[in-house]
Amino acid sequence: MINEKSGIERIIQQINSTNAKKIAVILVIAFAGxxxxxxxxxxxxxxxxxxxxxxxxxxxxxxxxxxxxxHYSKIDTRRCLxxxxxxxxxxxxxxxxxxxxxxxxxxxxxxxxxxxxxxxKPESNGQNLVHVDKxxxxxxxxxxxxxxxxxxxxxxxxxxxxxxxxxxxxxxxxLWSIKMSNGxxxxxxxxxxxxxxxxxxxxxxxxxxxxxxxxxxxxxxxNKMSSExxxxxxEHIDLYNKAAVxxxxxxxxxxxxxxxxxxxxxxxxxxxxxxxxxxPLQHDTQIxxxxxxxxxxxxxxxxxxxSTESYTTLQLVTFSILTVCVIxxxxxxxxxxxxxxxxxxxxxxxxxxxxxxxxxxEGSSSQKIVNTQKFYILIKWTNGRVGCSx
Length: 390
Fold this sequence. Notes:
GO molecular function, one term: transferase activity
Number of helices: 13
Oligomer: single chain
Strand order of the largest sheet: 4-5-6-3-7-8-9
Shape: elongated
Organism: Popillia japonica (Japanese beetle)
Keywords: Membrane, Transferase, Transmembrane, Transmembrane helix
Pfam families: Cas1_AcylT
Distance between the termini: 44 Å
Number of strands: 12
Helix content: 40-55%
CATH class of the largest domain: Alpha Beta
Structural class: alpha/beta
Radius of gyration: 35 Å
Largest sheet: 7 strands, mixed
CATH architecture of the largest domain: 3-Layer(aba) Sandwich
Mean pLDDT: 83
Protein name: 10 TM Acyl Transferase domain found in Cas1p
Number of domains: 3
Low-confidence stretches: 361-389
CATH superfamily of the largest domain: SGNH hydrolase
């Protein structure tokens, strides 16, 4: 009586190269389908991922969704800007908005500043600031506009008629509108109308290769705010952000969602409940540098905002050979399937059994005839030698 195989033995019997190949094919197709779904759902532009989503890792470092954030030291930053200047390009950053945007400017300039380079103040407006590094052909400006007013719209229109508009514009405001209206929701309609006036100059600047970011308002820490900001709540901030998203989503501006997420993860570290602490400002600076520099630096670490490299000759040849192999395989499979479907069985061969192969052969010569479907193979043994004839 033959003992039945146990469950483990049946499982072990299924572990073979054929099943492994099937599983590998299924996994490859599943991963390819998953990544294609992500590209359809979220797009294939890693700069959009950098500016839209991310999370904090265990060491409180920021990790964007779908790509890697390269950490720029001061040496890396100056190397990037020097490389851009070498090709005759000027780097011009502008931060325009309220005191929160000013904090972003100060964090960004603090990362760039060298001892021999100072920040200058224009005489026309004591609130405006500018940082210039002539060796790097670098200019970083801050312009004080706490409201989306006619003056801000005119500033954008002045930039659009320049031969060399700013490389990057980081804009954002809303805090002062909440404060001066004492938290009234009626002012949101005026805020929305003024946002629509920015769309035309923003689109025109985008056509001239300028990058325009709109920094969404970060949440506040109510426990640390002074009495003059008590009317500012996170509910009001969400309403203003909603208005900005509804209007600017149809323009060429990049909505900087990740700046809000960075602040939200460290809102407890805010020194006054309104402005960012030094660590989230450093994360925002790294995001801006990755957005601007990665495509020039060509890091091989999956960094965000890196353009796809051009195909090499070896890659094209390899892909062509692989394509030919796939076509031949599919053709052979269809050929066999069609013959089987029409009732024309393919040629089959009958192998000699192990017993026949190992059986002793008596006499000086003998012969066996193996009958296949269409041929007869005559196999002769003569004095220990093997000969075949058809």
